[in-house]
Each structure stands twice: as structure tokens, then as C-alpha cells.
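hey so i finaly got around to running the thing on VTT domain-containing protein from Pelagomonas calceolata. pasting the sequence first so u can double check i didnt mess up the copy paste, my clipboard has been acting weird all day
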Amino acid sequence: MRRALCLAYAATVASALPRPRRATTLHALRVRGGGPVDGALEKVRDLTTTPAGSVAFVSIYMTMELCGIPSVPLAAAAGVAYPTKVALAVVLASSVTAACVAYYVGRTRLRPRLDKRISNDRRLRAVAAAVRDEGFAILLLLRMVPMPPAINYLYGAMAPKFPAYFFSTLLGYLPGTVGTVLAAKGATVALPRWCYVAGGLGVLALVGTTVATGRRVSRQLDAYERRV
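ok and heres what it spat out for the C-alpha cells, dont ask me to read them lol
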């Protein structure tokens, strides 16, 4: 089972390799190696778009998230392996589902251990107090700040109401998912120049929003930290 997951993961990441029209390292390999390179890439893409390949992709994606490993490379791979709308749906559904599973595990099986950790960490106590008092609003802001997936277990121990947790996760994950998938798609498909300009401006706006949100969250948590 482990070997199969490793092979599926390698196949998914390999599917993200672009097929540029201009001279690149991959192009040089094609010239030297001929058809086998192109054929291998096509087989990888065919694998990831089959039902079994899609199930393997989602399983690996969720496993990485639940193990606390950032899954950005897989999100980018999805942008190449699938049509844009399908890639967005697959990545967002996988991320949110994994977050909800971690929430449940943190609220049940890991609750005693996580409660102890939260009680021993002043910053985490501040986060727990903010989540308890502000619910959806603070969760949405926290979702817009990059954090390791393992934070979802701690959110479960903090026990916000599930609807607030679910919708804040869905909305908070959306900008990063769209940006990653579209960036991967744009790197492999020839687009008009204005698309790249608009994409660059969008990335700058996303980074600016993330920084501003991070500062706002930090100020709010500082206020809660002084109380706990």
C-alpha cells in the first residue's frame, strides 16, 4: 500500500512538468531522447485523469494534509493534470475535507493531549480565547494567514462551532487554491500577455492582503494574550 501511494504521488508530481513550446531543459531532453519523454508525460497525465488516478490523488493529498505536510506541490500538479474547474474543485474539496477530519480527530481522540499543550502555551491560549469569543470572524482571518495543516487538530481542541469552522475554512482556502491552480495552468499553456500581467497583479494583491491580514490577526491575538 505504501509503495502504491509513493508511485501515485511520484506520478502526480511528474504530471506537473510543463510542455513548453520554447527551448527549455525539457525540450532539450525531447530532442536528445525523442518520443519516449513525450510518451511518458502523456501516460502520466492519462493516469491522473482516470477515476483510479483521481482517487489516488485525493487520497495522497488528504494524507499529506493530515500528516501536517504542506500540499502546495500537489495543488500545482492538479492545475496541470486536470481542467481548471475540475482542478479547483478537487483541490478545494480535498483540503477542506482533510481539515474537517483533523478537526474531528482533534476534538475527540487527541483532545486531552492538545488541551494540555494549549494550556502550556500562552499564544495558543490567546488563539483559543479569540476563537471562543469571535468564532467565524477570527477563524476566517486565521485561514487567510499561511499556517501548517497541523493547526487543524488544534482548532478541533479549541472546539469552535462546526459551521463556523467549515465555512471559514472553505472561504479562507479559496484564494490560495485559485492562485496556485491558475499559476500552474498558466505555466503550461500559452496565454495572451495581458493574462500574465493580470496574474502578476493578482499575486501582488494576494500577498498584500495576506500580510495585512497577518498583522491584523497578530494585533488581535496580542490583545487576547495580555488577558490570558
